[in-house]
Amino acid sequence: MRGKPLAAIVSAGLSKFGRRDGFSGRELFAEAALEAFERCPNLDPKKDIGALIIGNMSESFEHQCHSAPIMSDWAGLLPKPAVRVEVACASSGAAIRYGIFAILSGLYDTVMVGGFEKMTHRTTFEATEYLAMASDFPLEQWNGATFPGLFALMATAHMHEYGTTEEQMALVAVKNHHNGALNPKAHLQREVTVEQVLGSRVIAKPLKLFDCSLISDGASCAILTRPEIARKYTDTPVYIIGSGHGTDAIGLYERDSLTSLESIRRAAKEAYEMAALGPEDIDVAEVHDCFTIAEIIAYEDLGFCKPGEGGKFIESGAPTLDGDLPVNTSGGLKAKGHPVGATGVAQLYEIYLQLTGQADRRQVDGCEVGLTQNLGGSGATCIVHIYRRG
Amino acid sequence: MGETYPFTIEQFYRFVGEGKLMGAKCGRCGGIFVPPRPLCPKCQSRDLGWVQLKNRGKLLTYTVIHVAPEEFQQMTPYALGIIELEDGVRLPGIIRGVKHEDLRVGMTLEVDFDTANIPSKWPQWPRYFFRPTQII
Q1: Is B75's Cβ below 8 Å from some Cβ in A?
Q2: Chains A & B: contacts with CB separation below 8 Å
Q3: Topology (CATH) of A135-213+240-389
């Protein structure tokens, strides 16, 4: 399987991310699905798509579980089988992986994968509580841990162990807001300065408001096929050539390291080996910047730089749009937004645009190989995929 | 001790209510884990026994939380840390009795079983906290 395509992406769609008052999750999913169908006129959705696999984190937001048949219905795909997978914020990253499995099983030639979350109608208290449900209840939630709190614990440890600074974390936000300002689908399309980030109010020390990703509404989808039939549908397929999945203890306190996430390292190793590539081969990447420190840790655990040097890596400018390895050209979770269940496939969507030359003002010239890294919770789950231009 | 006590989270908190932090110790690999579970997460052994954990440890990392779920909002800002007890077991917990600007990685803390009025619809577990070492 090394280096061979696992599946082909023949189309993808993304709703506008942001505060989408008056729209529910299913309507946002239909918006994403319609874009994917319009991009791929040779595909007859009802006839060609065999199954739907969607990621969605929490039924608490819309008081609605059993959402897979609803998404199938709203995308016009009934009565095709539909299932929801859930691994917190990595839910739709997992949907990609299980979509690949569905194709590799031989049962389906073509599947749709996607994700959604509708969040902004809830108060900050409610959203904080629902998101915290992806951490360990008996010891973490019971002791008042929040998601910013858990990543703040990693940030404090990283600062103590490696001398990483709040200014370096702020540079991640500045970069991702710069990219988000170029993305018409981003939740926040405006630049921020280091001073604004450092001066924003504290959420969980040392993380401030502008170190945190956004609570957003949004949906994403992609159509995957057997590589052999991809050209029936498009002249510009993108191949998924590596897939990795790492799992670790739910509690941050149970893990050996507080500055590195074993789940990222395991997922990356599996995906790199499958693709027969290494970090030096990646031209463009979307990583899980739920907090600025998470992007710094991702640089290190994906092998973009050495352990402890993530702060220096952002300072060097390497992950900026004009750098050697542009990271989060979409604006990332930080500026594009983080409707949690939609995020994994939204990362795929950006890489799909980049590798097919459709990323407009964010286009990275000549990119051939892309990577997505989607984290669940405080790192008990990580999904990594590697893509190659067709 | 403890062969009649189930290796459950409920039982862990019953011990907390008695003023004790208790963990499960694996008879095969010697690992101690909290919360307890029916088999050793390192070696899958079911040869387990309860052990009382040390009451003192070092602060590995901390944060001060300003935005919290509703039941904790009345306490904000509050300090949360991960402590490594002297027997190597790590636990998260709220740190009380210290000025937030005085928190330092590596400082010594001890377990505190004082009650606190944090509302909860479910469950009704007793709580433990951490505090600076009391000098008597």
Answers
A1: yes
A2: 98
A3: Peroxisomal Thiolase; Chain A, domain 1 (3.40.47)
Cα-Cα-Cα-Cα torsion A324, A328, A330, A335, nearest 10 degrees, comes to: -130
Cβ atoms of residues A155 and B65 within 8 Å: no
Q: Which amino acid is at B25?
A: K
Rounded CA separation A89/A342 (Å): 8
ipTM (interface pTM): 0.95
Contact assignment for A204 to B67 by CB distance below 8 Å: yes
Q: Where are the domains of chain A?
A: 7-122+216-238, 135-213+240-389
What DSSP assignment string belongs to A209-254? GGGB----BEEEEEEEE-GGGGGGT-SS-EEEEEEEEEE--SSGGG
Mean pLDDT of A257-280: 98
Question: Do A313 and A307 contact (CB within 8 A), yes or no?
Answer: no
Tell me the average pLDDT of chain A.
Answer: 97
Mean pLDDT of B97-111: 97
Of A139, A143, A204, the CB nearest to B66: A204
Residues of A marked as catalytic: 89, 338
CA gap A381, A13 in Å, rounded? 25
For residue A149, give how far its alpha carbon lies from the nearest alpha carbon of chain B (Å).
Answer: 6
Domain B56-116+124-132 has CATH 2.60.40: no
Give yes or no for a contact between A72 and A80, defined as CB atoms under 8 angstroms apart: yes
Residue indicated by tokens 């079911």 = B46
- pTM of the prediction? 0.97
CA-to-CA dists, residue A345 to A20, A198, A349, B57, angstroms: 19, 31, 6, 43
